[in-house]
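Lecture 7 notes: from sequence to structure.
We start with the chain below.
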Amino acid sequence: MIDVSYEIKRFRPINIAAIPADEKYGENVRLAFALYNKAIQKIKDGYEDLARIDLKKAIQLFPSFHVAIILLGMCTFANGDRIGAVRIFNSVKDPVMREKALNYLDYLANEMDTIDNRDVVRPEIAEDEMFEFEAGTPTDKQTFKKFEVIEVEDTMENLKDLKIELVVKDVQEEVKVEKVEEVEEVAEEEEVEEEEEIEEKIVNFGGVEKKTNVKQEIYTEEKRKEKPPAKRIKNALTYYFVAGYVICAALMFALFMYAMDTKNENMELKDTLAKYTGSNTTASTPTPEPTQTTSKATPTPTEVPIDHYAETKKLVRECIKNYNFKQYFNVVEIYHTIKMEYVSESDLEYLKKIYEASLNHFTKQNHDSIYALSDQGRYDEVIEMLLPIQKYNPNYSRIDSVIFYIGKAYEDSKNYAKAKEYYTEIVDKYPDSSYYSWASYRLKVIG
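Predicted structure tokens for the same chain:
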């Protein structure tokens, strides 16, 4: 077995506060760094599976984040999935980091095949052997185009400002021009036909000298009987054009207000995420050297006093906002980062109330969604749905079902070691469960 607690020492958290304000370190990159730091802490706390979820999100936001790819590969290898780990390590494209990644993969394979890590006393890992994020890693703005609008998920909804392209107005103008031309042609044809009809009636009268008067008489009679079709069409077109213009203007205004709302929420989310994911610099956290020397007159992040009450108030507001938007899992995660001693009495009761409601909502939503995912063979998503329930809601009335289906998803994905671990938990802790006999049977089948 790979000693994950030993291997995680090779990876250093990133001091986000020390990164210069540069175009290549945009919002997506900084959020990816925050998730990477969060994953390292979760691995140290023993939640490797949850750390893998954060690492996948970080790599999705920042595909050139090679250190995060290497860490995800190590966790996957330690989880028993060698084939998946090889694919992850091979996805590193940078030549220098690729060589490091493949050397590290060889080391992990050798460790797994030759020695039992639990019986080995290992030396401390030197600082120069640790994986660090390289400040020179190239970033390409085009890489992030598809993330301009991201569905609300975890704590990183709407990472980019919503961009509105005024296409509707141009299309409306083209349609208007085409319709006007078509109506003019129809009107001309109708007028020509009308003229020919009048001429025939004049000839029948037989009086050439009366031609002008008769023509005027017939024309007036026809106009009095019926309104010209061309004029009716023109009036209708004007009406529809005005109505369409009003609707388009209302739609554009609504989209603009939504974009402004989203921008303000993104700013608050970024500040909040930087606080509760632990991206502030601390004395015990090793950090990469900043690329620019700071002035002595400017205080470092550790020298700035933190107003715990203000920060806690901000997190409470964030909980309420996520609850109003029905982002129940976000409420649960943020709630566990809040220091309750700084919550005012007026907020405490309501905060606990929305936390309990959110815990029940997200537990039911996640638990109900696993059956469809299992039928579609999406076992990794089943695990991602159920692991947070096991962590945050261990007293759930159907926790035995949650643990059993985690084991089943691992078994279906050929990770028999992890499946055996969860089936054994059912047998040991829940002898009265309806899943007891199933878990016992699957343990015999797996061996």
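Points to note: The longest helix spans residues 229-276. The chain has three domains: 4-147, 168-273, 308-446.
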